[in-house]
Amino acid sequence: MATGISEMSFHATTRLYAQHFCTASPFISPLRKNAKANQRRSLHARSWGISEKTHNFQNINLSQPFQSRKKFTECHCQQASDIANLSHDEANSTWVQDAVNKVSQVLGSTNGKGAIEFENGSAKHGEDPTLVMPEPAKDLQPKKTRGSSLVEDEAWRLLVESMVYYCGGPVGTIAANDPLDSNKLNYDQVFIRDFIPSGIAFLLKGEYEIVRNFILHTLQLQSWEKTMDCHSPGQGLMPASFKVRTVPLDGDENATEEVLDPDFGEAAIGRVAPVDSGLWWIILLRAYGKCSGDLSVQERIDVQTGIKMILKLCLADGFDMFPTLLVTDGSCMIDRRMGIHGHPLEIQALFYSALMCAREMLAPEDGSADLIRALNNRLIALSFHIREYYWVDMKKLNEIYRYKTEEYSYDAVNKFNIYPDQIPPWLVEWMPSKGGFLIGNLQPAHMDFRFFSLGNLWSIVSSLATTQQSHAILDLIETKWSDLVAQMPLKICYPALEGQEWRIITGSDPKNTPWSYHNGGSWPTLLWQLTVACIKMNRPEIAERALEIAEKRLSIDKWPEYYDTKSARFIGKQARLYQTWSIAGYLVAKLLLEKPDLAKTLWSDEDAEILNALNVMVDPTNPRRKRGKVLKKTYIV
Ligand code: GLC
């Protein structure tokens, strides 16, 4: 494929420049600028109303750090974006103190116990003066009896407190922010996928800076040389997470600098490659443009090149026969072994969504014509494949039940040689007469019949599923409410793997025991995707019902990462508390249900061209249909 060489090399040169100019260690990618420029503080010091209902909580300014910066004698940073002048003096404690005082007022806790103290402009909380953590004291906890707007205010406060700063500007949110957790693992990092609901919550609130910074800084990390045992991931891979580290500045013992340190999976448990990161990045980029109206970010040459690098990685030819993306186990939200290697639905839905978003954003120019054509072809093929072969409902299940096997021919009905005995006994009972869903995975002679929530919801949001299928998925969620929602929305997958299956498929993973964590646990963050899907299909009442259930428990339970048991009665065995994407997922759902029109910025409508091409493919009078030769296939990517 013609890759727009000049742009690629421009991109690479900028990165090399940054590396040459800044790097002290080859394993760290510092993005810094000179000390003078460092005196500038990021973007507008604007007032920002947290709650439109409770006016006590205003003037929280996301441009200012919530952390004390006093431990840094000096900070050298390279900003990825333009930065308005605002002196360091303005980044003093006043804002922090003001904001937290207001939080205390809102929560009715100005007495000594619950209040966060200040000293020299830094928030003091226990031993660590650099962090303002969620207050564990009882009187700061929301009261069970109070109205939901207080839960919302608490959620905003926690979201603001989870913000991570790099050289004075907000760049993301930490995965979990529990002050009492002594074993944080990598939950103190900014995860790309976890930031998506945070970013969207900020966008919906009209706060764009943090999202812009996140997009531009993660772009700089995109193809950083990272290796695992001498092997580097493909250029274009986005990290799973990153951390802001403060390190001594070379040659100056009194100075430190902040660096962004990405993890591409080379340190992650199981060394899993985060395939979803780049896809989510593209989706967020499009949402940023739609919500803010600022298209200048997506139009930047480095951003355009970033999009193309992700696409290039995804569209590269391999050995695969299918248009779906082939990945290893644990390459998405489910980032441990759960038997989802191959062509998991979640990745396919995000892939389709990212292709749709990229198509909207890519600047038409000679250099990218081949790429755009390859992208269009893939959209059609992927859409056909998923709609046709991943779909199950009563009718389709009955067809599979009667499948002939070992068909050698171009027009086989049972193309993947699925043995009917594979239909699991639970599904025979479980499949409702009204409704259906997209299965979790499809491989030769293998259908993974488990229901995966995120993949199904995002297929609705991205229009990967047909309108009819989308309604049927929501029908199924309604009919199977006590299995999929029960006491906390939403089950990550259904049903759980048990016994020998659990032993073999998860490798006896003690975190993924039946009905826990990824193995049938319930994840409140999924509320936001459920809400977008329901609003898109004009069925917001389903999301409202789910939100009502979540709202009763989330704050009281301290915003857990996930819930356990078949009906989600318990807080997850190893669930983090104050998990940011549980908080943000709730906020996005809340905001969207209040202003459903905003959800349009997050979904993709069915595309007429794709629909047309699909109709041609299934048209029985089309002579080329049988061999699937409707698409012109001439592109080398
Ligand atoms: C767990 C989840 C993953 C998430 C991470 C940080 O590993 O499986 O999806 O990104 O925690 O919250």
TrEMBL record:
EC number(s) per entry: 3.2.1.26
The protein's enzyme class: hydrolase
GO BP field: sucrose catabolic process
Hydrolase listed as a keyword: yes
GO cellular component terms, semicolon-separated: chloroplast
InterPro entries the UniProt entry points to: 6-hairpin_glycosidase_sf (IPR008928), 6hp_glycosidase-like_sf (IPR012341), Glyco_hydro_100 (IPR024746)
SUPFAM superfamilies linked: Six-hairpin glycosidases
Record's keyword annotation contains Lipoprotein: no
GO MF, one example: sucrose alpha-glucosidase activity
Catalytic activity as recorded in UniProt: Hydrolysis of terminal non-reducing beta-D-fructofuranoside residues in beta-D-fructofuranosides
Keywords: Carbohydrate metabolism, Glycosidase, Hydrolase
Region of interest (Disordered), ranges: 120-146
Family indicated by similarity: Belongs to the glycosyl hydrolase 100 family.
Function: Invertase that cleaves sucrose into glucose and fructose.
Protein name: Alkaline/neutral invertase
